[in-house]
Design brief:
Helix 1 packs across helix 2 (about 70-80), helix 7 runs parallel beside helix 14 (about 380-390) and helix 8 runs parallel beside helix 10 (about 250-265). The chain folds into two domains: about 5-180 and about 395-400, 3-Layer(aba) Sandwich (Rossmann fold), CATH 3.40.50; about 190-370, Rossmann fold (3-Layer(aba) Sandwich). The protein has helices spanning about 35-50, 70-80, 95-100, 125-130, 135-140, 160, 175-190, 205-215, 225-235, 250-265, 305-315, 335-345, 360-365, 380-390, 395-400; strands at about 15-20, 25, 30, 55, 85-90, 110, 145-150, 170, 195-200, 220-225, 270, 275-280, 285-290, 300-305, 320-325, 350-355, 375. By secondary structure, the chain is of the alpha/beta class. The strands form four sheets. The chain has a six-stranded parallel beta sheet, with helices on both faces. Helices cover about 35% and strands about 15% of the residues. Strand 7 (about 145-150), helix 6 and strand 8 (about 170) form a beta-alpha-beta unit.
């Protein structure tokens, strides 16, 4: 049960400052469309139907990275989803931004510049500190209310996420509301049958706490990806280390070896490890070998067919299934089998299911699966992990305080 105000509580015809998360891949300097645009466009469209004027705050990349670009392209993509004109101003809270905000009328949408181009946005500081920044204090009087729809960034204590709810009326958007409700259910809902979780991805520090904190809910964990290889290494297999110039395994093994070995010993047969792995052979084709016969001299890019079939069978025998992280490099069709077989098994099964992680959820659309076949598809990554482990989300906390 949510304890914050939602857009249902808004009076119509107001000027709203709306924080969304449309952080997206950038290729050759051009931002690419992704599922987040579509999800947030639904929130904005509903606000426009209620005669609100909307100014959008969002971020893209981090300073110093190639993905750190202005939001002009984001405004164009948002316009395509909304099927209406969306304004853009290359300023966040300076004179140009204030003039554009002042000109907003009911039904207008304006995208302000990348908030991470503001010096006061990024440092992780207490909400009370962020509320006193010039950024927040300048924009505050220009709006009737603030709406946070950026659940996927709700674990960040940045000015645009935590400052405004302390100084003005604040509400949760539809994405924030839906994500919070669905992801909280993982810890709070009780199931009579077997609960399975598929865990993959690249970061051991993300997934180890999940295993430890949801063990009362989840009966078995199916591991894949780089994390799965690290656990295979702990199990004595000749994998889980860097070869050919990769930099995925050795530093994580050094930092987390004791924890990985302890978790493997403690959870025993509840942790299911890959029986075979797939790689690219000399002809560029997918090839597989069982873990017992592996002497690692190449990168493994997916769980093998036997493992994928085994995991899919376990999914079909479950009352609930949760997914965090891909089991392989699904962006390459040759190495999508593990991820797609598990997702397809979920879609074919009448179970409660949550697929989390912005990257993993992309596989649903890429491989022609119907999002309606899943109970919830989360666009969140870090915030989803926090929800699984029960850690507080500061962006949610300040909305609750505002209420």
């Amino acid at each position: 049960m949510t304890t914050f105000q939602t857009v249902d509580d808004l009076e119509p015809d107001q000027r709203l400052l709306v924080r969304i998360d449309i952080n997206a891949p950038v290729e050759d300097g051009v931002v690419q469309d992704n599922r987040r645009f579509a999800r947030h466009a639904e929130t904005i469209a509903e606000l426009l139907e209620n005669d609100h004027a909307v100014a959008v705050l969002a971020h893209q990349g981090r300073p110093g990275r190639e993905t750190f670009v202005p939001l002009e392209g984001h405004a164009d993509i948002l316009a395509d989803h909304l099927e209406r004109e969306v304004g853009y101003v290359a300023d966040t809270f300076g004179e140009d931004a204030l003039a554009a905000i002042d000109a907003l009328e009911s039904g207008d949408v304006l995208v302000l510049e990348n908030v991470r181009m503001c010096e006061e946005e990024l440092p992780e500081e207490e909400p009370e500190v962020k509320a006193e920044t010039e950024f927040v204090q300048t924009l505050r009087p220009e709006f009737d209310a603030y709406v946070n729809d950026a659940y996927s960034a709700a674990h960040r204590s940045h000015a645009s996420l935590v400052g405004f709810p302390l100084v003005m009326d604040a509400y949760a958007g539809r994405v924030m509301e839906a994500e919070y409700t669905a992801n909280s259910a993982i810890r709070e809902r009780e199931f009579d049958g077997t609960v399975t979780m598929a865990l993959g991805g690249t970061k051991a520090e993300d997934l180890i706490p999940v295993i430890e904190r949801v063990d009362d809910t989840v009966d078995r964990f199916c591991l894949g990806g780089i994390v799965g290889e690290l656990f295979l290494r702990a199990d004595g297999q000749d994998v889980g280390y860097d070869v050919g110039g990769t930099d995925f395994f050795d530093h994580q093994w050094e930092n987390h070896r004791e924890t990985i070995e302890r978790v493997l010993a403690e959870y025993g047969d509840r942790l299911l490890l890959a029986e075979d792995l797939a790689y690219e052979d000399s002809k560029g084709d997918r090839a597989e070998e069982t873990v017992e016969e592996i002497e690692k001299d190449t990168s493994y890019l997916d769980v093998g067919s036997e493992t994928a079939d085994r995991y899919a069978d376990l999914v079909r025998d479950s009352e609930a299934v949760f997914v965090k992280g891909a089991l392989g490099v699904f962006e390459d069709e040759r190495f999508a089998d593990g991820t797609v077989e598990v997702l397809s098994a979920i879609a074919d099964t009448d179970c409660f299911s949550v697929v989390g992680g912005g990257d993993t959820s992309r596989a649903i659309g890429m491989y022609g699966l119907d999002e309606e076949e899943f109970s919830h598809v989360s666009v969140a990554g870090g915030a989803y992990v926090r929800a699984l482990t029960g850690d507080a989300l500061v962006g949610v906390d300040v909305l609750e305080r505002a209420a």
